[in-house]
């Protein structure tokens, strides 16, 4: 559930600057309003083809629309770059948490089950799992010695005992990998992640 919330939040944050630029119909500055003004100027020009004012109005409206479209394209490009950077940050945070879980697994083995020390480690592990589940959807298993392994819900391994599958992001094609396993969301034929902030940003 927390992964779903993180996904929706990431989508909203990723689109915020672009939707802010697009504005709202009727505000006079949105690309939709610029297009409407251009259409109106063309209608006026058709009805008054010899009017210098109508001709000038059509030219100015066309220039205004072109500027608005270019601005939207620039803002979209900036938004895409910001999203790519945010994905890199999320991947870095995820890998840090995966290695933290690995270290906790190793340290926990030094203590007998049922002791205060193992309870403290279990609490730390739960905190790390909560952090990871905000970024990607996971399921976990616990071995007989208390070692926690985690997988994406679709089955790709992230941590198995002492072994971490480093998560990587290829900005060129948007691919997310866990080791050699493709976990890109919404991609056919792979064990893609389904929820979490990484899904919302992808």
Protein model, in words:
The protein has 202 residues and is of the alpha+beta class. It is 59% helix and 13% strand. It contains five helices and seven strands, in the order ααααβββββββα. Strands 1-2-3-4 form a four-stranded antiparallel sheet, with helices on one face. Helix 1 (2-22) runs parallel beside helix 4 (116-135). The radius of gyration is 26 Å and the shape is rod-shaped. The model has no long low-confidence stretch (mean pLDDT 82).
What labels would you give this structure?
alpha+beta; 202 residues; rod-shaped; 4-stranded antiparallel β-sheet; 3-stranded antiparallel β-sheet
Summarize the structure.
Helix content is 59%, strand content 13%. By secondary structure, it is of the alpha+beta class.
Architecture blueprint of SSEs:
Layout: H1 2-22, H2 31-47, H3 52-108, H4 116-135, E1 138-142, E2 148-152, E3 157-160, E4 163-164, E5 167-170, E6 175-178, E7 181-182, H5 197-201
Antiparallel strand pairs: 1-2, 2-3, 3-4, 5-6, 6-7
């Amino acid at each position: 559930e927390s992964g779903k919330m993180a996904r929706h939040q990431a989508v909203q944050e990723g689109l915020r600057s672009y939707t802010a630029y697009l504005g709202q119909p009727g505000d006079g500055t949105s690309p939709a309003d610029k297009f409407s003004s251009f259409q109106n100027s063309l209608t006026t020009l058709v009805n008054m083809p010899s009017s210098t004012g109508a001709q000038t109005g059509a030219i100015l409206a066309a220039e205004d629309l072109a500027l608005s479209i270019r601005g939207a394209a620039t803002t979209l490009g900036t938004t895409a770059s910001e999203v790519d950077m945010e994905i890199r940050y999320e991947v870095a945070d995820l890998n840090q948490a995966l290695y933290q879980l690995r270290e906790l697994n190793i340290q926990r083995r030094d203590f007998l089950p049922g002791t205060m020390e193992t309870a403290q480690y279990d609490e730390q592990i739960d905190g790390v799992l909560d952090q990871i589940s905000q970024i990607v959807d996971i399921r976990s298993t616990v071995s007989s010695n208390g070692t926690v392994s985690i997988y994406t819900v679709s089955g790709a391994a992230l941590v198995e005992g002492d072994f971490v599958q480093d998560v990587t992001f290829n900005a060129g094609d948007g691919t997310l990998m866990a080791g050699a396993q493709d976990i890109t969301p919404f991609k056919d034929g792979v064990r893609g992640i389904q929820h979490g902030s990484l899904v919302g940003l992808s």
